[in-house]
Predict the structure.
Amino acid sequence: MIISESIRETREQVKEWKRQGLRVGFVPTMGYLHEGHRSLMEAARKENDRVAVSIFVNPIQFGPNEDFASYPRDMEKDAALCEDAGVDLVFHPDAGEMYGEGFSTYVDMEGLTKELCGKSRPVHFRGVQTVVCKLFHIIPADRAYFGQKDAQQLAVIKKMVRDLGMDIEIVGCPIVREPDGLAKSSRNTYLNAEERQAALVLDRSLAAGRKLVEAGERDALKIKECIAGEIGKEKLAKTDYVEIVDFADITPIENLEDAKNGEILCAIAVYIGKTRLIDNFIYRISECR
Ligand code: AMP
């Protein structure tokens, strides 16, 4: 497995694979890898001849009061997980390599990035799109793999690729959870024992909302109230948002039947103590119209 901190070296390696006619799968991450990341690598491994992973805690997607400095990092453990998952190349640049002096070009999107997480994290998606766009140029892969855990991010990246005519296929992968239901996240390490227990409210409240949908409820407000009510029962939890949007364009929806492609996204962000966690489910209401 190659580990490279250099843009030039990484690009040369991937281009060499392309010259040999090999298909390349790419998994962008911020490291501190877990089974969720590993599932993306395994999907990439199955569908491609070579797999590249990037590990980069991207400073420009964090707001000034967010956790960039404290975000967990463990390159040694990450490299071992990548090696074990059959990864061929790990791109691990420092911030100077990615954002050299005078860096001033950004990728931004209207609409979709202003909803859900965009409301409490106004610079987040601009930072994500910029780094992913740059990574796609450094690693000209055939396919890139993203988790549904960050469903809005997945929708944003798909739209960016469509809008800008980028030559890469975006593959979405299901959420990987702990045995007790908590979605795996690098940020779960921030939780103490009591908070870890309290964090189960995310999965529990979504399950209650999903049950309503499955029983035929189509009024988004009623479903959101049910979920918010469940979160309210947990004293360490504070709701950032509970939203139901049309998954086609991440716009708010009142009646679930109105989803343009028949799919809704029910997404929540909840503070457990100081830690902000997200979770969601996607539900297919009807066949595409
Ligand atoms: P991150 O390192 O948190 O930026 O995540 C890198 C990629 O892994 C993103 O596409 C995430 O959506 C994905 N990911 C993170 N956690 C999970 C999970 N629990 N299940 C599936 N994918 C995940």
In short: The chain is about 35% helix and 20% strand. The mean pLDDT is 97. The radius of gyration is 19 Å. The pocket of adenosine monophosphate is lined by residues 29-30, 36-37, 39-40, 146-147, 149-150, 173, 175-176, 183-186 (CB under 6 Å).
